[in-house]
Design a protein that fits this description.
Layout: H1 6-19, E1 25-33, E2 39-44, H2 54-63, E3 69-75, H3 83-100, E4 110-117, H4 119-131, E5 135-141, E6 145-152, H5 156-164
Antiparallel strand pairs: 1-2, 1-3, 4-6, 5-6
Length: about 170
C-alpha cells in the first residue's frame, strides 16, 4: 500500500487486519521518506520468531529502492510448522509477489512555492503546472492572486524565472 507517513501506514495495516480478523499473524514492513530526506524503516514480526517475518518483508522494499510503501503479510496457521527458514522464505516470497503485482509510481521530489500574480498570469501558471504535474495548493483572490503551489523540484527554477520576467 502507498503511504506518505507512519499514520497512513498504520491506517492501511488496521484496514488489512479488519479484513482478516481470524488471521494468526499480520507481519509488516515499511519504508517512508521523511521531510528531511531520511528514509524511515520499520518492520514487525507479529509474534513470529525474531527476524523471520518483518525483516524478510523489508528486504524486497530495500532491494527495489521502494519508498512510501507498506507491505503487510497475513498468515493463517495451517497446522504445519515451517521452521525459521521456511517462515523467512514464506514471508519474503509473499512480500516479493505483492510488490511484483503492484503498480509502482516513481517518486518525484516536490517543492512548494508561493507567488503573487496578476489575474492575467494565473492561466499561464495553471498551464505550466499541468504540463509538469504540479498542482495548486491554495489561492487567495484580492486585487492580485496569491497562489501556493506544489511543483517537481526539477521545474522550480524554470517557473521562478518565467514569472520573475513579469516582475
Amino acid at each position: 500500500m502507498p503511504c506518505a507517513n507512519e499514520r497512513e501506514a498504520l491506517h492501511g495495516l488496521r484496514e488489512l487486519a479488519s479484513q482478516h480478523p481470524n488471521a494468526n499473524h499480520l507481519a509488516f514492513a515499511w519504508r517512508i521518506r521523511q521531510e528531511d530526506g531520511f528514509i524511515s524503516e520499520r518492520c514487525n514480526d507479529a509474534g513470529e520468531p525474531s527476524g523471520t517475518a518483518g525483516r524478510p518483508i523489508l528486504a524486497p522494499l530495500e532491494g527495489g529502492g521502494i519508498i512510501n510503501a507498506v507491505v503487510g503479510v497475513i498468515r493463517y496457521f495451517g497446522g504445519v510448522k515451517l521452521g525459521t527458514g521456511g517462515l523467512a522464505r514464506a514471508y519474503g516470497t509473499a512480500a516479493k509477489l505483492a510488490i511484483d503485482s503492484s503498480i509502482l509510481i516513481p517518486w518525484v521530489e516536490m517543492a512548494t512555492l508561493e507567488m503573487t500574480l496578476d489575474y492575467s498570469q494565473l492561466q499561464l501558471l495553471e498551464y505550466h503546472l499541468a504540463k509538469c504535474n504540479g498542482n495548486i495548493v491554495n489561492q487567495q483572490f484580492t486585487d492580485r492572486v496569491q497562489v501556493k503551489f506544489s511543483i517537481p523540484i526539477s521545474e522550480k527554477a524554470q517557473i521562478q524565472q518565467l514569472f520573475s520576467e513579469f516582475g
